[in-house]
Design brief:
single chain; mainly alpha; 5 helices; about 35% helix; about 0% strand
Length: about 150
């Protein structure tokens, strides 16, 4: 007899599956809610912290849009949800051309010329570009096209 060393045969690994292309539907960020959240961010709606021990005025007033009344004073709401709903309703009135202070079918840039005018020490161009950027659109986007 001759002793032959055993030969170990490794199983052939199964081929990896071909990558499957996943087609995702684009997410439209240009919504009324996201528009309002971008305004809230720009307006500085900040809860109490080290820098703002009592929170910002927008936070204390539960007014995420820093909206003003006809008397020129900032509105004060009892809870955040009412303040946010007011801001959303305000935007929807502009979208529907039911707000006299705005031109017909304003762009985001035109919206902020009225909402945050330079006469109130705002920078409406910067404001419009910031909000538009968060929505993934340009400042020439028409407000009425928010969903």
């Amino acid at each position: 007899y001759e002793i032959v060393p055993a030969i170990r045969i490794e199983p052939t690994p199964e081929p990896l599956p071909s990558p499957v292309a996943v087609i995702e539907e684009p997410v439209n960020k240009a919504t009324v809610e996201n528009f309002c959240l971008a305004i809230q961010s720009r307006e500085g709606y900040i809860a109490p912290n080290r820098q703002y021990p009592k929170g910002t005025p927008a936070w204390r007033n539960k007014n995420p849009g820093n909206c003003k009344g006809l008397d020129g004073n900032f509105l004060v709401f009892s809870i955040y949800e009412i303040g946010f709903a007011y801001l959303e309703n305000y935007v929807r009135r502009v979208m529907a051309n039911k707000h006299k202070a705005y031109p017909k079918d304003p762009t985001i840039a035109q919206y902020f010329e009225t909402y945050a005018p330079s006469s109130d020490d705002n920078d409406p161009v910067s404001y419009a570009n910031e909000v538009a950027g968060k929505l993934g659109v340009t400042s020439s986007f028409l407000i009425k096209n928010l969903i």
